[in-house]
Amino acid sequence: MADVTPIRTPAEQGLIAAYDGARGKLPGKGAVASLREDAFKRFDAKGLPTRRVEEWKYTDLRTGLREALPLAAVPDAAAKANARDAGAVFAALKPRKLTFVDGAFVPELSDLSSEAGLSIGSMAEALTKGDAEVTAKLGKTFETDDIAVALNTALMGDGVVIRIAAGTALKRPLHLVFVTQSEASSFTRSLIVVEKGAKVAIAESHEGVAAQVNTALELIVGDEAEVDYYKVVANRGVHLGSLLMSAGRNARFDTFVLNHDVGIVRNQSFIRFAGEHSKGAVRGVNLLRGEEHVDNTLLIEHVAAHCAGREQFKAVLDGESHSVFQGKIVVKPGAQKTDSKMMTRALLLSDKAEADNKPELEIFADDVVCGHGATAGALDPTLKFYLMSRGIDEAQAEALLIQAFIGETVEEIANEGFRDAIMNAALAWLEAREVKP
Question: pTM for this structure?
Fold first, then answer.
């Protein structure tokens, strides 16, 4: 039988050329170089995912990514200057900012002042120096064959390595600020280790010009540790974001993602309850219009017993926008007494908008409480008429109803400061929204 030569799209050809050109120049040798090569081979064998790949059924990346932009260059002084005031969405919380410009960590725009129990360093430097702990942990938090993660592993350039020592409660939140200043592609990889009993709030925001961003965060939550992790995506272009998390015994985590004013976004979370008696929440809201596309895909894996998980996502869709939710809860044998629930709701403001929701359960234990649900619908005309009959104009009436819809999810955010910041961002989107008669 003759060998079959796959037909490469321009984007696939560009990604292969980018890796060939960068091979040997990317940070890290030995085990890291092998990790990159193995990941690239997975991409080379499979190519970009299409609708035929179940996990990417509603986000055909082979079609959506028409070409691969060149790898971003090292940011110059002008690009850094333009990024100085980025990250305003969480400014009121006075967080410790860690700034990235076109995927490169910029220490001079970051707050690296010392604090007991906190260690912050560049991922590129850690890979170059052969940091044994980083090398040992990289790619192990949640192993997956996902192509976006594989591409990130193959081409990862910079990022941060953060260690929070056992028992440390950080005084201020950490804010990872990602700014794109050039229409290029960037691949960042970060590793955050929160040791036993430590407490931290982490924010991540993305803004700037239309670029191709592939970012991955490995988050290791130790026994009895508490982590709040919140993300806001508000930039055009293509954004592929992967959260790979593992939670230990008696741990607690709370996560939330807000997407608005975007191009094509795929946020994927791979989360494992690895220790008993842990609790975690994964939530998010999409505010979409025009031809915006956001895909929130979750894989929640319960390995240990007596854990509780809550997943809730809502989407508000206007114009010809498209929202996707795919969530799978997997309860492994031995994960008895698991309590896990998943819900997604979509509010359609236009006949041309589309919402695809696909929650799934795979249960291999017999003493669990698990469930899921999904709904989609339009604004209630009775409620809208009621508000307008009391002198409220149509735009404000719709805004109030939308605010109430998303408020049910935003109000669940554990951290009060982040809850207010995210709601304010959502309200700004509502105020800017145009209501067509």
Answer: 0.95
